[in-house]
């Protein structure tokens, strides 16, 4: 398998004159032409606009170039993009707009080039089957709902993908494709222009090939200072919570524990403890997300809703029966869980939490049942959607069945998540390494 291009390496090549934005865009479009008949990552590939933007980028004086100058990036079909319809993965719903979402404006202002809109589950709910397929095994689950973005980065038809994460929708497909998926601290990236509206579980983030690429986007799209990812983990206290190590596939468990051993060998202290309140997450997360979705669709005409996927219609019908008291109770649980996580980080003097991103690998689509299997896929990612803490998935093992290790940290400590993720990335695990920590 050929080496994937990275944002950072490509940016350096551009700055040094080794290549041009037009050459980079042509390479990405060639990858799309070669792979789209099989993987269907894009709902709309905007080749003409990307080529025009590349010509403009190459003519821009060096002093006026931004950090993402001339770099082609895909955008999820839930995020408004001027000049392209936003379909939100739906056959019956479109959102015509002449305005970019806030994150797309930041992307363009930093010099990034939009390659097109990438497939998602209808409204990002994960309850239908988009046409996107896993590039290594089209019969297996490719993740959701930033599925098109992950597959596009995996095959090289974009250098990075901007998406959304309401329960793991960036981190899940990143883990399943051996990529890096960052969900920043809640509110750090503006969600304005994400349609058909977002709930308080939702975050805008991105999928990249490397941790350094993710750090480049973090600075460019938020205005934060550039993040160093080479400081290592010596002296850091890495927390492991029992909740995240229950009911794991043996291969996932083994790979993550090998990763923890590698971090310990690099000088980190691995600290095991419990946060009992995490058991409250699934119900509260589901209630908040469903009630928010119901509110966004309440005024949609009946003839439009009738064309939604059956699973989406059933989900919204159930969601509309959630009472205000149930939603208020779920919000109180969210505050309790958030405080419990923060208190545990303080009590144990933890710099970052590490866990598996997913409890299982890519299931066969033929036997997958969303109502049963999606909660299994979201169980380890949803806690940080509920609490808003930053979290990133980084490959701890690559190959045909990659495994992701999730790193989370305090509010606003996005740089710490990337610092630890970079240490994981630098020490890819191999079969045969030892195991770490207690069994749960």
Textual characterization of the structure:
Strand 10 and strand 11 form a beta hairpin. The C terminus is likely disordered. Helix 2 runs antiparallel to helix 3 and helix 9 crosses helix 11. The chain is of the alpha/beta class and 440 residues long. The protein has 2 domains: 216 residues, Amidase signature (AS) domain (Amidase signature (AS) enzymes, Alpha-Beta Complex), CATH 3.90.1300.10; 133 residues, D-Maltodextrin-Binding Protein, domain 2. It has an 11-stranded mixed beta sheet, sandwiched between helices. This is Amidase.
Brief descriptors of the model:
440 residues, alpha/beta, eleven-stranded mixed sheet, globular, single chain, Amidase signature (AS) enzymes, D-Maltodextrin-Binding Protein, domain 2, 11 strands
List the helices and strands and how they pair.
Blueprint: H1 7-15, H2 21-39, E1 42-45, H3 47-59, E2 72-76, H4 102-109, E3 113-118, H5 147-155, E4 161-165, H6 171-176, E5 180-183, E6 203-208, H7 211-222, E7 237-241, H8 250-265, E8 269-273, H9 281-297, H10 302-305, H11 310-319, H12 324-347, E9 352-356, H13 370-378, H14 382-387, E10 391-397, E11 403-408, H15 414-425
Parallel strand pairs: 2-3, 2-4, 7-8, 7-9
Antiparallel strand pairs: 1-3, 4-6, 5-6, 5-10, 9-11, 10-11
Helix pairs in contact: 2-3, 7-15, 9-11, 9-12
């Amino acid at each position: 398998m050929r080496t994937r291009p990275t944002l950072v390496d490509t940016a350096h090549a551009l700055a040094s004159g080794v290549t041009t934005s037009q050459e980079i865009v042509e390479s990405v479009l060639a990858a799309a032409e070669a792979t789209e008949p099989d993987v269907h990552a894009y709902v709309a590939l905007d080749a003409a606009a990307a080529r025009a933007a590349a010509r403009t980028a190459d003519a821009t004086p060096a002093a006026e170039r931004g950090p993402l100058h001339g770099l082609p990036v895909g955008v999820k079909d839930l995020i408004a993009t001027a000049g392209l319809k936003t379909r939100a993965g739906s056959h019956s719903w479109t959102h015509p707009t002449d305005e970019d979402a806030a994150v797309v404006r930041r992307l363009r202002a930093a010099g990034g080039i939009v390659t097109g809109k990438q497939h998602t589950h209808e409204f990002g709910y994960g309850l239908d089957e988009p046409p996107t397929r896993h590039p290594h095994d089209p019969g297996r689950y490719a993740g959701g709902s930033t599925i098109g973005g992950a597959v596009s980065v995996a095959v090289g038809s974009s250098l990075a993908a901007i998406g959304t994460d309401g329960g793991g929708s960036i981190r899940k497909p990143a883990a399943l494709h051996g990529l890096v998926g960052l969900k920043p601290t809640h509110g750090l990236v503006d969600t304005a222009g994400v349609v058909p509206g977002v709930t308080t579980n939702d975050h805008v983030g991105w999928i990249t090939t490397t941790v350094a690429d993710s750090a480049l986007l973090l600075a460019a799209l938020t205005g934060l200072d550039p993040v160093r990812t080479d400081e290592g983990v010596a002296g850091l206290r890495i927390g492991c919570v029992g909740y995240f190590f229950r009911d794991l596939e043996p291969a996932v468990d083994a790979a993550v524990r090998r990763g923890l051993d590698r971090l310990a060998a690099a000088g980190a202290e691995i600290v095991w403890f419990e946060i009992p309140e995490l058991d409250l997450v699934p119900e509260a997360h589901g209630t908040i997300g469903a009630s928010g979705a119901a509110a966004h669709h309440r005024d949609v005409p009946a003839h439009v809703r009738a064309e939604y996927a059956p699973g989406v219609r059933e989900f919204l019908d159930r969601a509309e029966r959630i009472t205000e008291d149930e939603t208020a109770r779920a919000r109180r649980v969210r505050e309790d869980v958030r405080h419990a996580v923060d208190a545990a980080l303080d009590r144990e003097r933890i710099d970052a939490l590490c866990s598996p991103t997913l409890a299982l690998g890519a299931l066969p689509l033929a036997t997958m049942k969303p109502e049963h299997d999606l909660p299994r896929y979201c169980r380890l990612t949803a806690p940080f959607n509920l609490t808003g803490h930053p979290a990133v998935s980084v490959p701890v093992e690559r190959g045909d069945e990659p495994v992701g290790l999730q790193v989370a940290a305090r509010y606003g400590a996005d740089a710490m998540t990337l610092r630890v993720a970079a240490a994981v990335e630098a020490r890819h695990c191999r079969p045969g390494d030892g195991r770490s920590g207690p069994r749960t």
